[in-house]
Design brief:
The protein has 395 residues and is α/β, with parallel strands linked by helices. It folds into 2 domains: 195 residues, Rossmann fold; 170 residues, Rossmann fold. Helix content is 40%, strand content 17%.
Amino acid sequence: MSMKKKILFVMPHLKTGGITTAFINLMNELKDDKNLEIDLLLFDKDDAGELPESINILSVSKGLRLLATSQKTIERESKLLGLVRLVLGGISKFFANYIAYKLVFLFEKKLTGYDAAISFSQSGVLHSLYGGMNEFIISKVEAKRKITFLHCDYKLIGLDTPYSKKIYSKFDKIAAVCKGAEDVFLDCVPTLKGKTCVVHNCHDFKKMASLAREDEYIYKKDRINIITVARIVNQKAYVRTVNVFKRLKEDGFSFYWHIIGGGEKYDEREIENLIEEYNLSDSVTMHYDQPNPYRFYAGADMFLLASYHEAAPMVFAETLFFNLPVISTNTIPAEEFVIEKNLGIVCDNNEDAIYNAVKSVLEDPEILNHIREQQKPEATNAQALEEFYRVIEGE
């Protein structure tokens, strides 16, 4: 790049999650680029510790924080702000979130002087207060190019609305993190074909390798060890997956299933209760949020991702890096990431199909060795960076 560019990124927060990991990885790749000056606006900047020092974090009002923080958290900090957020949430639920956004944005100053302004997170669902990054860039930022990222299944997540289409049409470029996500978006909004592209996520392969060696988790080897690394949220389909393992145990199969990931306390408790109710405590272990999830990869036998929907989960590249076979439900990235890269098995997106896929491996573990032999581990971000630079250059 010949001329220095000033770039603004807008994110809700940097709490645990795939989008956050992808963003931090991208920042680490860009930190030594002397042709870029990067500002970051976080609606909630409480967790910004992992960013490179070269990234300039902008100050924001308490109003923006209401759009990126839960009601319970806000109420603990301030009863007044809790009441304000409750009102905004009611407006979003009974009318639409963009009305609440407009009220919050009234008190925000306009940001100017950018070559590119990038929303690194998709729009919020119409009746949920959470979100507003796209709207902020459209209404409160002056930039030569405005870009938004899609890390989701646009249709299944509930974004296929006239309002959402209107917002996305105002961007110069819409960057989907995999081909499947782009295809779903264009099925819904074919008129924006000229504005879409694919920009894959970056991964910190050196960090993954280093952390995997730190305090590596030691598995019992009398059974197959299956891991799932994912937040405990409805999208990840933990309830039906517990049902799958209940059926497998009842049918006489032995296994260890390790859940690496946490969620809200009530979500965690629901899974804990099911494990106890189904007498799975000797076969299923919850490890909750882990500062170093990579220590669970190296010694595992298989990775299971049973989500209802996905876009481009970071775990696919992670499993490939660790040469770990995968069973995945048929979500939009399955063709590109699992089948084309020989990651493993893709099954239909229902409980019976997941049961049959896992059962096939438990009956014949040699399948896992065959998958490992077919995989070709990767450890480069060259393609993803080339795609990113093309977007900000306007190519």
